[in-house]
Design goal:
alpha+beta, 3 helices, 52% helix, 100 residues, 12% strand, Rossmann fold, globular, two-stranded parallel sheet
Length: 100
């Protein structure tokens, strides 16, 4: 997934379109910028994971740039991502759906 928020949002429709045909899914996370971008990353991941076309396929989260001083360790990435995804699920589930 792209590293900038704008790029992630722009490519989301294409990603969701491809999800239905995917045999596996790999999220490559920049672990040196993860702490700064956690909310946006989790929002993007959540949008992909709740897509109705996503079947039961293997999903891998790959933490790159682990050699940098600012890198968040993979275990902490996992914990923080799980926490943020749970928070998003709670907030988005509590918002009523408005139909026009």
């Amino acid at each position: 997934m792209p590293n900038s928020r704008k790029s992630r949002r722009q490519c989301l429709p294409r990603v969701l379109e491809a999800v239905a045909r995917a045999k596996a899914l790999v999220f490559v996370l920049d672990s040196s910028a993860f702490a700064r971008d956690i909310r946006d990353i989790a929002g993007f991941v959540y949008d992909v994971l709740v897509h109705p076309g996503l079947g039961r396929i293997p999903i891998l989260f790959l933490c790159n740039k682990q050699d940098l001083f600012s890198a968040v360790p993979p275990g902490l990435v996992r914990t923080q991502l799980q926490t943020e995804l749970s928070a998003i699920r709670g907030t988005r589930a509590s918002v009523p759906l408005v139909r026009g």
